[in-house]
Each structure stands twice: as C-alpha cells, then as structure tokens.
Amino acid sequence: MEFRADRDDLAEAVAWAARTLPTRSPVPVLGGLLLEAGPQRLGISGFDFETAARIEIDVETGAGGRILVLGRRLLDICRVLPPGQVSCALEGTRFTVEAGGTRFGLSTLPKDEYPALPVRPEPCGSVDAAAFATAVAQVAVAAGRDDTLPVLTGVQLRLSGGEMTLSASDRYRYAVRTLAWSPEAPLDSVVEVLLPARRLHEIARSLARSGDVRIGLDPAGGGMIGFEGGPMRTAVRLMEGRLPRHGSLFSVADAAVAEVEREALAEAVRRVAVVAEVNSPVRLDFTGDGEGSVLLRAGYADDVASQRLPAALTGTAEISVAFNPAYLLDALNSFEEPRVRLELLGPGQRALLSGAGAGAETGDAYRHLLMSVKQLV
User: Fold this and answer.
1) How far apart are CA 241 and CA 234, in angstroms?
2) With bands split at pLDDT 50, 70 and 90, how would you rate the model's confidence at 219?
3) Cβ-contact 70, 34 below 8 angstroms
C-alpha cells in the first residue's frame, strides 16, 4: 500500500471515522481503523459492533492495499503533521506517515481478525442535514442517562408518509420534534425504530453540513439503520423496545398559557438557581394583573434569590409552578424561537413548552413536556 493525501483531508477523515472507536475494549482490533486504498481513493472505516463508519477521500494512489492501524494513534499523528502533502506507505509490517521532513512509523494490527463490516442498508429517503441535526439535538436532551433503563436512553424515529418524528423521554420530560423528509418510494407502513441517543446526536452533528442525509433501513427487518451524507456513511445498531406513546400526555386542555422571552427566562433561571441546593426546584409565580409578570424564586431561609420578568398570562389570573432548574434550562435552551409558550396545569402536573412569537416558523413542530414539582418552595 502506498498513497499521498492532503494533510487536512486525511486528518478530518481519520477524526470522523475515529468517533466510532471504543474507549476501552477487550477486543484489541476494535481500536483500529481499516484503511483501504484503491484507484485514487482511500476508504477509512471504524466499527465497534454497535456503530460502523466509513469515509472516502481523494488520494494519489501508488499501490492499493488494505491495512489495520491503531485509530487514536493515527489521529494523534495526523493532528501534529505539518501542512501539505502526506506520504503513507506500508513497509513490511510497519505503516509509515511522512510530511514536511517529519516521519512516523506505526505497527499494524492483524486485519484478518477484524470483524466484517455490516452491510449498508439501502437508502429509502432523505432529510435536510441541518434540520435533522437541529431536531436530534432538541430531543436528545430529554433522553435518559440511566443504562439500567436502556429504552429511555434512546431516541425514537418514526417515518410516516413525508413526515419524520423524533422523540425521547427519561420519565420526567418528553421531547418531540416533527420535520419533513423525502421518501424515495412510498413506505408500505409506518416505520418506528429506537436508536441510542448519544450515537445519533454525534452522527447528526457530524453530517450537519452535508446538504442532505440519506436514511437507509434494512427491508428484511435487520437490526441496522444507515445514514449517508457526502463521502460519509455510518450505520447504527437499533435498540429493542419502544417509548411510551405521548399523544395523551401532550393533551393539556384548560391549561393556563404563559408567554415569556426565552433567553431572559433562561438567564433568570440560571441566576437564581445559584442559591438552590441539589435537587431543589426553582419556583415561577405567573400573574396576569397589569402588564403581567413572572417572579422566579429559589433557595430557603436566608439563602434566597428572586427575579421578576415581564410575561403574558391567559386562562387564569395567577398560577405557580416549580421545576428542576437543570431540566428547565435544558428545555429552554433547546428552542430556537425568541419567545417560549408554557401551557401550565399547576404544581405536580404536566407543563408543555413550545415556541411562540416572532420567529416561531415551525409552530408546534417541536414540543417539550416537563413535570412540575409537587411541593412549591
């Protein structure tokens, strides 16, 4: 094997493929990246049994071949290489990397022990890459972190007609985002799959600038879903199970409705929560008298903080609710609109957040449900 590549192209490709490498693994070869040089192209692949990634870049190929090298070691080398062309070659069992008078040697791993990469599912439709990345980021904040409840650590993806719905919940909050997607052919039925939230977030973010993301599903009902954007391809193993249905949860009839500037509310929550003890809530007292306002309060005894903000309230003269400040901040920061709408049922009940006011082009496309705290501070 022998090839020449631009340093920046090689470093970016290695960094992208290395995202799949496990931090620790009892199987040493899983720490490797598979390099496959063909006619004027270099393919770089990584696989950890849960996620497979492959990217191709243009190179000047002197001799084709296929080798396995330590991925993170190669990434560290690429990061410190001087700018310009990089010459790579296999010399016996050593892989050499040379640029600008700097030369590195890397031992190779036994490629015959590397597991076979999964077959890429054929694409069945596409979605705008930037919109997809935004949608995944919005719902992923509500996914659980407790591995003893694996279903709640996932993001559920639902495809129906020309609509894609993403949702996640950790029991205390539930985020749902809908967006348009373009199927290549009509689906025989509604598709619902569950993916690891952290993996999906990383994939969507890395493909955000690729124009469109093509999504592939195994027609035989296999356990992988594929994503393609530009020269990047990745496949993720699906999780078992389904999230609970959210339709009835998001029905908040007869709720009081408050609207407030989103960034101002987030900053106020962050400020007053400084005095709150761990797991202590922040209280929000909404009033509709006069101009309308919301008073935020946190803390106990002499260690207290408060701040009042303008707010509009309809459906009642006043209402008080309290939230876990971290959950409330996650929800507020996941919106893009300048104003947020809160549909409130009262203490210990559901509160539905959605975008409102100028800039809320998506309407109810993204909604975030929070459970309020029963005991007000």
Assistant:
1) 22
2) low
3) no
pTM of the model: 0.91
User: What digits encode the pLDDT tens for the residues 117-176?
Assistant: 888 888 999 999 999 999 999 999 999 998 889 999 999 999 998 999 999 999 999 999
Question: Considering only CA atoms, which of 90, 91, 98 is closest in space to residue 37?
Answer: 90
Give the integer Cα–Cα distance in Å for 15 and 173: 34
Q: Which residues contact 190 (CB under 8 A, 6 or more apart)?
A: 158, 159, 160
In the DSSP assignment, the letter for residue 244 is P
CA distance 284 to 278: 18
Q: Which of 99, 103, 101, 104 is nearest to 84 (CA)?
A: 99
pLDDT tens profile 275-290: 988 889 999 999 987 7
HSE toward the beta carbon, residue 245, CA cutoff 13 A: 3
HEC string of 245-290? CCCCCCCCCCCEEEEEEHHHHHHHHHHHHHHCCCCCCEEEEEECCC
What are the pLDDT digits (tens) for 303-312?
A: 899 999 999 9
Asked if residue 71 lies in contact with residue 38, where contact means CB atoms within 8 angstroms, the answer is no
Q: Does residue 349 have a pLDDT over 60?
A: yes
SS3 at position 191: strand
3-state DSSP call for residue 77? Answer: helix
In 3-state terms, what secondary structure has residue 116?
Answer: coil
Task: Please identify which residue in the block is written with the tokens 């249905």.
Answer: 245
Q: Identify whether the C-beta of residue 356 lies closer than 8 Å to the C-beta of residue 313.
A: no
Provide the 3-class DSSP secondary structure of residue 112. helix
HSE-up of residue 374 (Cα within 13 Å, Cβ side): 0
In terms of pLDDT, which residue wins out, 189 or 339?
Answer: 339
Q: Is the pLDDT of residue 217 over 70?
A: yes
Q: Smallest Cα–Cα separation from 97: which of 86, 82, 85?
A: 86
